[in-house]
């Protein structure tokens, strides 16, 4: 139906934008409701509650960023993806191709994001750019994309690099984007549930790992990875987090 009624450009640009907005807000807004209503508070990582005004400012700014930064970027990026081999035709790619590409995208994204994120936390860049996202020391789902436009473009490069290199089917691109949005919303949700992915997926960071990054502000917070934790482990930027977790374990057994 989609390829019959819409052009490849419409699907790859506007369609991708609409899918992103749907997944992002439908997965992020429930955490605002949980926080405001005090539901499932025993799973909340921090005791602090964001004010309604702070949540409202976040949503307004996000809408401005999405329509005036994200959408234009998606529109102008189409020729690049088309050149790299993006396609929308049938049949859909086999599952093993989709799976291998998604795994590749996660690896590439983690590597590029880690170094980009770490650089943004150097003193000068943090002062002029990165501190915007850290206005929310107690993150909630939607704060995952609350950032300076320059950071959105810089770190967004990590997300699109993998697809740009492989020229995937649009179905694979949409699946990757959906998984990446759900991952970053979960990492910023502020809740560590028994069913959180980090409890089941080895090396997966999740909300507890990333929440530490927001609590310890400025240039030495650590935990710079996006999805998995191995980059922080390899380069020793998770030492503060590991120390706190060890102290928590000791206090429980005291």
From TrEMBL:
InterPro entries: Fatty_acid_hydroxylase, Sterol_Desaturase_Related
UniProt keyword annotation of Endoplasmic reticulum present: yes
Swiss-Prot/TrEMBL GO biological process terms: lipid biosynthetic process
Entry superkingdom: Eukaryota
Enzyme Commission designation: 4.1.99.5
GO molecular function, one term: aldehyde oxygenase (deformylating) activity
Subcellular location: Endoplasmic reticulum membrane
Primary localization class, coarse: endoplasmic reticulum
Family per record: Belongs to the sterol desaturase family.
Protein name listed in UniProt: aldehyde oxygenase (deformylating)
């Amino acid at each position: 139906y989609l390829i019959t009624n819409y052009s490849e450009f419409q699907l790859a640009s506007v369609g991708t934008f609409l899918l992103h907005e749907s997944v992002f807000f439908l997965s992020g807004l429930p955490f605002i409701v949980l926080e405001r209503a005090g539901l499932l508070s025993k799973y909340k990582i921090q005791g602090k509650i964001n004010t309604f005004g702070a949540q409202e400012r976040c949503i307004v700014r996000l809408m401005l960023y999405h329509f005036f930064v994200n959408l234009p970027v998606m529109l102008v990026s189409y020729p690049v993806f088309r050149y790299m081999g993006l396609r929308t035709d049938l049949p859909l790619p086999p599952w093993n191709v989709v799976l291998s590409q998604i795994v590749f995208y996660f690896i590439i994204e983690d590597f590029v994001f880690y170094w980009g994120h770490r650089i943004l936390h150097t003193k000068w860049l943090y002062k002029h750019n990165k501190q915007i996202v850290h206005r929310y020391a107690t993150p909630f789902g939607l704060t995952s994309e609350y950032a300076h436009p320059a950071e959105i473009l810089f770190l967004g490069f990590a997300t699109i690099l993998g697809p740009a290199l492989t020229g995937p089917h649009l179905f694979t691109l949409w699946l990757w984007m959906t998984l990446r949005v759900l991952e970053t919303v979960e990492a910023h949700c502020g809740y560590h549930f028994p069913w959180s992915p980090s409890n089941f997926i080895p090396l997966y960071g999740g909300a507890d790992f990333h929440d530490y990054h927001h609590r310890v502000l400025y240039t030495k917070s650590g935990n710079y990875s996006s999805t998995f934790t191995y980059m922080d482990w390899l380069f020793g930027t998770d030492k503060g987090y590991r120390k706190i977790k060890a102290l928590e374990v000791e206090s429980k057994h005291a």
